[in-house]
Every structure is written in structure tokens, then in C-alpha cells.
Amino acid sequence: MSGIGGNLRIDAERLWASIMETAAIGATEKGGIRRLTLTDLDRAVRDWFVARCTEAGCSISVDELGNIAARRPGRDNSLPPIAIGSHLDTQPTGGKFDGVIGVLAGLEVLRTLNDAGYQTHAPIEVIDWTNEEGSRFAPAMLASGVFAGAFDRDYAYSRTDREGLSFGAELERIGYRGDEICGARRLGAFFELHIEQGPILEAEGKTIGIVTGVQGMRWYEVTVTGMECHAGSTPMHLRADALVAAARMIGAVQAVGLAHAPDAVATVGLVEVRPNSRNVIPGEVFFTIDLRHPDDAVLAAMEAALRERLEAAAREDGVAMALTRIWDSPSVHFDAGCIEAVEDAARTLGFGARRMVSGAGHDAAYIARVAPTTMVFVPCEKGISHNEAEKSEPGDIAAGADVLLRAVLATDER
Ligand code: GLV
Ligand code: MN
Ligand code: MN
Ligand code: MN
């Protein structure tokens, strides 16, 4: 890359200050963030983001899924924008970095371009995608999924949380249901900076992960139905205990993961027991399953094994079992040109880097269907994420943002 763009660097302190400012919105006692999608706290961080982008001279558009795009014009505004983004929502016990750094690094890129008076050919957009986490409204990556045509709008609106509140109503309530049709806009390219959420970069002493794709993910919901009965007077051999059966099923989920290790992972993360009273034999258990593998064929085989094992467990324990797959996000391969732009940027800036596949889901996985896309990873301590203790070094995040800036400018100059 020639010219001024080659020497531009983001302001590491300003970026860190933005991260710490947003970390106060929904801060938890243990140093993390609880900022579930479409809550008042989500509205507060969105308002913050819109205000900062407006101050940076951007125009703001909000689509019907609540995705916020802040646009810095280029020389030729008929060109599709080069977009940078991620998500501002968090897990119930999330950290300060998951998602947030990808949005705020985008803001930092805009501020850096402003300070330098640098004009891009294409407009640059920074996007906050709604409901990436999927912990309140399943599935994850819901609004980037609508943008990419993986789901339709009304399906997204109809998703409910565990209290029965709908995505559509909550979006409306926080005032972020926009007019723009979701997915109507074309993107010239999409780049997402994120913490790795795994231990590889740290273990290898590398600063930058060049992300070549995302593994396949499937989500399921299971309801086990037995018979609610008195814990004192019902003999052991005459029970249909839904929780005992579910416990066996959870063991089977782990076994399916282990059978395809080390690449496979299988998790039960949410369990609800009804009536959840200490002297009532559980009559119903609801639980979720998250299966992942980089190879879609193996993932399909894992699902077949899972079904078989859960049905067998239900038969043995004399309970009914309903297993529903609610999400299938196939493995993704990112764009070769974008990957090269990130690799070149890391090399030119002198950062240790390696290619890797993402184990976590990201909005980029869906956006890759409609625009040339890739991601930049930076290390996080011990690979710990989806945890309030999540930690990432300011210098590493700044390095990732510089790589992002350079990859974006190189793409713009192409
Ligand atoms: C989203 O955070 C996922 O990878 O599950
Ligand atoms: Mn994330
Ligand atoms: Mn996450
Ligand atoms: Mn994620």
C-alpha cells in the first residue's frame, strides 16, 4: 500500500478508553458485563455508539432488525461501503471484549481517518449487529443472519426469550426498530476484529490470528417428559424421573463430543427442571445442546449418533423425549482476497501471525454469504471467554485494530 494510508496508525489509548467506557454499561461486580440483547442496557450502549459516531461525522442508519450502520462517506459514494463490525450485546456473564472490540475498533478506524483527513474511495461503515450472542433469543447471529438471507425477518421477530417476550416487541420497546429493509444494502467487503476466545495465539506467542473460516454449528432443544410425583411415597422402580433421564442424556452429549474429539465439541449449557421442588420427582426437563465441528459431514454424523443415544436413554428410563434442531450454521470459508489483505497487513506491521479457523460463531460467518469477508483475531488470556474474567491486552487489541485499518485501506485501494 502506498501513500499516507501506509503510515496511519490507530490511537491505542483512545481505543482502550472507548472499551472501558462501554464496559461501564452493564458492568458486573466480577469485572465483566451483563448486557443482554434488546434490554435497556443494550439501548444505552447503542445510544453511546450512535452519539460517538455522529460526533465523528457519520450518518447513521438503523434497519428493521436494529442493526446500526455508521457511515463515513468516501470519494465515490456509489461504491458499496467497506464495512467493519461486530456486536455490542453480551452473554449473561460476559466479558469486556467479546464483540465490543470489533465495533469500537471500527469507530477508532473512522476517528483515525478523520484525524488524518484521509479520504477513502468507498464509504466506510461501522456496524453493530443485533443479537449476536443468542443467549436471550436463539439462535445466535440472528440479525446478521437476516441480513444475509439465512432467516426471514418475521422469524427473527417471533423468537422469544425464556420469559416469553418476543424479539420484535423488545426491539420496538428499546426504540431501535429502523425503517431500512435488512439486507437491502450491498457491502463491498466486511472485516470483523474479535478476541480469539481460545488459547492458541497466546500459547504460540502470536499477536494476530488470520481467520480463514468458522466451524459448523448446530443447536438443539430437548424436552424430557416423565411423571411428576411425590418424592416420599413413590418407590424407585415405579418412577419416570425426567431429570434422571436428562442426566443420562447429558452424559450422552458429552460422549458424542468425545467420540469426535479433538475437533468436535458438544455442550449442554441451559437446563430447566420442572417443577424444581426438592420433594417432587421432576416431571419435565428442558435443555439445550450446542454441537460444533469444522467438517459438516462429521457434524451430521454427530447429530445422527446424538439422536440414537437420546432415544435409547428415553426408552430405558420410560420417559418421552422430543429433540428439535433449531439452528444449523454450516462451516464457512472466508474470502481469499480479504484473508490476504489481513495477512499482508500483519506482515507489514511486523506482528507474529498465524492462520486459524474460528471455533466460535461470529456475524462474519453470515456476512460471508453476501460480501467478501474475513476476521482478525487477537489473543485473550488463557483463552478464557464467555466469562466475566475475560482479559485481553491493550497492545494486542491495538495491534488488531492497526491490522484492521490497513486491511480496510488496502481493500479500498484495490
Ligand atoms: C456465539 O458467541 C457462539 O459462538 O456461540
Ligand atoms: Mn462475539
Ligand atoms: Mn460471544
Ligand atoms: Mn460469538
Automatic annotation (TrEMBL):
Give the UniProt keywords, A-Z: Hydrolase, Metal-binding, Zinc
Q: Where does Zn(2+) 2 bind?
A: 98, 133, 386
Which positions bind Zn(2+) 1?
87, 98, 194
Asked if the keyword Hydrolase belongs to this entry, the reply reads yes
Start and end residues of each Peptidase M20 dimerisation domain: 213-317
UniProt xrefs under CDD domains: M20_bAS
What's noted on cofactor binding?
Answer: Binds 2 Zn(2+) ions per subunit.
Molecular functions per Gene Ontology: hydrolase activity, acting on carbon-nitrogen (but not peptide) bonds, in linear amidines; metal ion binding
Q: What's the cofactor?
A: Zn(2+)
Q: Name one Pfam family in it.
A: M20_dimer
Family assignment from sequence similarity: Belongs to the peptidase M20 family.
User: What name does this protein carry?
Assistant: Zn-dependent hydrolase
